[in-house]
Amino acid sequence: MYQIIAKTDSKNFYSFRNNFKFEAYIGEKYEPKFFSKNRKKFKNIHLPTFFVKKNKKYHLNLISENSFIKKESFKILNRYFNLCKKTKINNLIIHAGFYDSTKSKKLDFYLIRLNNDLKKFFGNKINLYFENVPKWFNQYNKNSPLNSNLSELKLFKKFVPKSKILIDVDHLSINCAFEYFHNAYNFRNFTNDKLEKDYLKFAKRNSQKIKRLINKNIKNVVSYINPKLVHAVGSDFLNYSSYKKLPLIGEALPLNFSGKIQGKQVTDQINHKTWMRNKKSKLIIVEIINRPDYLYEEEIIKSFNFIRSNKNYVSNYTRKKKQ
User: Fold this and answer.
1) What beta strand segments (E) does the chain contain?
2) At residue 42, what are phi and psi to the nearest 5 degrees?
3) Which CATH superfamily is domain 3-322 in?
4) Given this model, what pLDDT does residue 259 score?
5) What are phi and psi of 226, to 5 degrees?
6) Count of C-beta atoms within a 10 Å radius of residue 152
7) First-residue to last-residue Cα distance in the chain
8) Rounded to whole angstroms, how far apart are CA atoms 282 and 166?
9) What are phi and psi of 266, to 5 degrees?
10) Which of 207, 228, 249, 284 has the fewest CB atoms within 10 Å, counting from its CB?
11) What local confidence, expressed as pLDDT, does residue 314 receive?
């Protein structure tokens, strides 16, 4: 059996009318009292992806070459790790960080060092789940996210064997579209604004090819990783824009969504049966951004129902094929 939960933050938590279980998304504020009070409602805590020091914002980065950033990042990991132990919320979701892929140091180096740094967190009831994070125009080359594609995920499993991996299907879609465009297009010294505009034209011209690549990639990654935890998210590669103010227009959508977002017609392009066929996925987290363009809780419920109907269909279909 599998369980479906929703991802939300403390700001939206009290607005829910339905009795959901949640993954908590953490912002800048540390709220131990909130989690102690509501611990039975949460299955996972998602580590913050940034921190602020002296009014300056930094990406959380466990593999940073900058000693200050790395030290502060591990402080945050340690704080939430202890909070998980105290509240008995046993899954901690992590974006590991960024590295300079243009340097001669191989990824193996960063992963071996990360594994050594994480040793004290292994061997107890708290599971560290590292999430795949996509490349985009503002994060690649000198600022490449760890675990963006299957090759990196394979290395991660090899060199950090006691950790676990959570797969976000929306992130797989974004990264696949980016890498296909990057391999086909000469980036030269174009600005990110120019690259994003050219990507949107490229995606429209090559829409069928990109859609096939994305869904094949999701199938391959999920088949190899067999993730117990999945971020179930809609995604529209034809509307990956507005990188300066994340999320992108076409990311973090309700599943099977079709409608207007910021005045653009947006449609979920993922064939979600590609990951639903994997029976190892036991905890499915619906991750939707709360936007003014739709009713937040209503779309979460629709996504829950979409997963239930399609995952049950896929399971029955797979069983019949084996008979």
Assistant:
1) 3-8, 22-25, 42-46, 50-53, 56-59, 91-94, 98-99, 127-131, 144-145, 164-168, 229-232, 258-261, 264-267, 283-286
2) -115, 135
3) Divalent-metal-dependent TIM barrel enzymes (3.20.20.150)
4) 98
5) 50, 60
6) 19
7) 20
8) 11
9) -125, 135
10) 207
11) 53
Q: Which residues, in sequence order, are bridge partners of residue 128?
A: 92
What pLDDT digit, counting tens, does each position of 229-262 carry?
Answer: 999 999 999 999 988 888 999 999 999 999 999 9
* 8 Å CB contact between 21 and 2: no
Q: Are 236 and 177 in contact (CB under 8 A)?
A: no
What's the pLDDT score for residue 106? Answer: 87
Cα 236 to Cα 156: distance, rounded to the nearest angstrom: 28
* Annotated domain spans of the chain: 3-322
Give, as one character, the DSSP assignment of residue 99.
E
Low-confidence ranges of the chain (pLDDT < 50): 315-323
Q: Considering Cα of 304, then 308, then 309, then 310, what sign does the dihedral take?
A: positive
**What does DSSP assign to residue 144?**
E
Sign of CA dihedral 69, 71, 72, 73: positive
Q: How far, in Å, CA of 1 to CA of 20, rounded?
A: 17
The single-letter code of the amino acid at 47 is L
Handedness of CA 250, 254, 257, 262 (dihedral sign): negative
Report the chain's mean pLDDT, rounded to a whole number: 93
The pLDDT assigned to 317 comes to 43
Phi-psi region of 287 (alpha: psi -120 to 50; beta: other; left: phi over 0): beta
Asked whether 249 and 148 are in contact (CB, 8 A), the reply is no
Those residues whose C-beta lies under 8 Å from the C-beta of residue 20, and which sit 6 or more positions away, are 5, 6, 41, 300
Residue type present at position 77: L
pLDDT computed for residue 323 by the predictor: 42
